[in-house]
Amino acid sequence: MADKARGPRREPIQRTGEPDAAADIGVEARIAAGILLNAALERRNGLDEAMASAELKSLPGPDRAFARAVAMAALRRLGEIDAILNRRLQKSPPEAVRTILRVSLAQTLVLDTPAFAAVSTAVKLAERDAKTRPYKALVNAVLRGIEREGPGLTTAESNLPDWIAARWKQTYGEAALAAIALAARDEPPTDLSLKPAEDANALAEALDGQVLTGGTVRAGVRGDVAAWPGYETGGWWVQDAAAAVPARLLAAKSGETVLDMCAAPGGKTLQLAATGATVTALDRSEPRLRRLRQNLDRTGLSAEIVVTPGEDWEDERTFDAVLLDAPCTATGTLRRNPEVLRATKPADVAKLADVQHRLLDAAAERVAPGGRLVFCVCSLEREEGETQIIAFLRRNPAFRTAPADPAAVGAPAEALTPEGWLRILPSMWAETGGVDGFFAARLERI
Ligand SMILES: C[S@@+](CC[C@H](N)C(=O)[O-])C[C@H]1O[C@@H](n2cnc3c(N)ncnc32)[C@H](O)[C@@H]1O
């Protein structure tokens, strides 16, 4: 596969992190990294499933964390890593050999692992398996060649699957595509949403971070969030700055009734419950609702929980405000979940748009006269965002757009569309570390 030329922007690959003591971590962790990488490339949720497998769980914690960091780095830079490899490979090696090479390059090019450790463990990995043993010398030569002569220039856009890059170029233009690709190269910072009574400035200071417009605290440190101040006492929860926007847009108030229609694992339910509104959190997935319950317990917040598909809910109630955070391709979360780009197929966009259409109609029925409806998706695909709302407003003349005020809801100013909706791109707020991609529209029943 040749390095894709989608424009002139070619730059040296940048290192972004350094897992602890990578040089001391051994072959087993690298094998695990390969397992995680391939699971993520093979199937949706593959990485999470593989992380939960007995094989991964049997590793010591630091090895497991290292394996995940390597797999994530490889996924974020897959196009660049393959381009570098392809310049040195005369023909494509067996997949197992490519995995070893990818895992090794993710360490040296992205994670700052010392080359001696990344290369020698790659050679040991090749040696261990009869299928890869004949390629031991090749693995050594390719990796040492790259170390000696440098990786060469690569493009951030090459990390995006072709069909996705083509779509985003058409929807957002070439410059935005390049900016999104750049934003997706690096591990994003961790953002926290706080309960209203918490001191955002003190938390930001403790985490060497900053308070963003809207009140999100962006941590300046990484690591185990459960060890950060305020976790045990439930003062905050992890939630990307963009993911915190839709619940603010709904502007729930104490004393109102609110339905969160696709609620689990509950980041937005927590925001809504923290306003003092009476919240009903509905989701079709019991396992995901279990996580929502744990989140409510930890934060001391409360909500009624309903397990059912939103379209089939046999309940007559209507609500002052309804939030529909619909299931979607999640392409906007590519910085946090680079695997979504590999797992999503073109046909998924239309399939999920159908689900969103049905859920939107079901959500609309739950809105009391004069009430509000916020629809949002963490997708960059127009069919899951703007197109849904245009079609919904045509089918439902009883609703109209209530334009968003980006400053009031902690969204980037440039996210506001002419229609009054919010289209947040991962390239926005780049100077403070970027955001997830989101679409959100607030509607009101006339
Ligand atoms: C984008 S996630 C929601 C994230 C959540 N709002 C949060 O902030 O943590 C979409 C959710 O929709 C749920 N879901 C999918 N189809 C559904 C349906 N027909 N009815 C209700 N929930 C559904 C999924 O189980 C998933 O939890």
Automatic annotation (TrEMBL):
Active site annotated at which positions?
378
**UniProt keyword Acyltransferase, yes or no:** no
Q: Which residues form the SAM-dependent MTase RsmB/NOP-type domain?
A: 164-446
Cite the entry's keywords alphabetically: Methyltransferase, RNA-binding, S-adenosyl-L-methionine, Transferase
Supply the EC number(s). Answer: 2.1.1.-
Matching entries from InterPro entries are given as: MeTrfase_RsmB-F_NOP2_cat, MeTrfase_RsmB-F_NOP2_dom, NusB-like_sf, NusB_RsmB_TIM44, RCMT, RsmB/NOL1/NOP2-like_CS, SAM-dependent_MTases_sf
**Pfam family of this protein, just one?**
NusB
Keyword Disulfide bond present in the record's keywords: the answer is: no
Question: Biased composition, Basic and acidic residues: where in the chain?
Answer: 1-13
| Disordered, as annotated region | 1-20
Domain of life of the source:
Bacteria
Question: PANTHER family annotated for this entry?
Answer: NOL1_NOP2_SUN FAMILY PROTEIN _ ANTITERMINATION NUSB DOMAIN-CONTAINING PROTEIN, NOP2 YEAST -RELATED NOL1/NOP2/FMU SUN DOMAIN-CONTAINING
Q: Provide the protein name.
A: RsmB/NOP family class I SAM-dependent RNA methyltransferase
Species name:
Brevundimonas staleyi
Gene Ontology biological-process annotations: methylation
The uppermost taxa in this organism's lineage are: Bacteria, Pseudomonadati, Pseudomonadota, Alphaproteobacteria, Caulobacterales
